[in-house]
Amino acid sequence: MSALSSSLLDPVVAQTIDTHLLQKSQQPTREDDPASDSDTDSLLDAADPIFASHRAARLQQLSTALSAQKSLLSASHGTVTTLSSEKEVMETVTATTRTLLHFYHPDFHRCAVMDRHLEAMAPVHVEVRFLRIEAANAAWLSGKLGVRVLPCVVGWVDGKEVTRMLGFEGVGEGCRTVDLEEALVRGGLLLRGKLGSQGNLSGHKTGGGKDEGYLGWRGKQFRGQKAKDEDENEDDWD
After folding, report:
1. For the chain, percent helix, then strand, then coil, each to nearest 5?
2. Do the Cβ atoms of 110 and 103 come closer than 8 Å?
3. Which of 102, 150, 165, 197 has the most C-beta neighbours closer than 10 Å?
4. CB 3 within 8 A of CB 9
């Protein structure tokens, strides 16, 4: 498990990492160097006065967490990746500790709103792989998961579904990004809230809409292509 995926980080280290990621998310992206050594050095220097108590252990944990951050960013974490096939989804979910998948329709306004929220969260929650797939390209998977409302967001930890959100029920379509973040923390996908007062990106309410489906934990196992073949005629994903 990645150091960033652990809930056992020292609170001071966790706060330092979260602040660092939030600041980086608000800066222009440097695709050639997602987490440079100079970034690490400057962060350690800046954090040094905070770490007077248990300094050596905290600096070691911070260094390990920053190395994990660099590895995750180089493996396409920190952005929302668009996939085009169910095979890609299965391979990614089964190979990744924490995964969020957005089923979307390119012409649906609500899906565009959800995309904006996820794009704001991805650079900060780098321990989670953020994915999206057009529902029409995932007909079998949509049917298996019972996706009937878009947008639909599903979260897995170690291949097991822990949370699901249909539409914006529980937060409202006009929610702030931080409200969506809190819902995903409650659902068990995100480790902790990181956006704080910075997470104020709002959705845009359209007239006459109904907020759909925060369903919470479902507990179905994501088992990959073999399970897909075996379960083709089954009603549930057990």
Report:
1. 45, 15, 40
2. no
3. 165
4. yes
Angle at 125 between CA 122 and CA 126, to 5 degrees: 85
Tokens of 179: 């409200």
Residues contacting residue 129 through CB under 8 Å, at least 6 positions apart: 76, 77, 81, 92, 96, 98, 99, 100
Cα 16–Cα 17–Cα 22 angle in degrees, nearest 5: 100
Instruction: Provide the 10 A C-beta neighbour count for residue 58.
Output: 21
* H helix intervals, the chain: 11-25, 37-47, 55-74, 86-95, 109-121, 139-145, 177-186, 225-230
Q: Taking the model in full, what pTM does it have?
A: 0.66
What is the spatial order of strands in the sheet that 80-83 belongs to? 80-83, 129-134, 98-104, 152-157, 160-166
**Three-state secondary structure call for residue 126:** coil
Name the 3-class secondary structure at 65.
helix
Residue 16 has pLDDT above 80, yes or no: no
Q: What are phi and psi of 162, to 5 degrees?
A: -115, -20
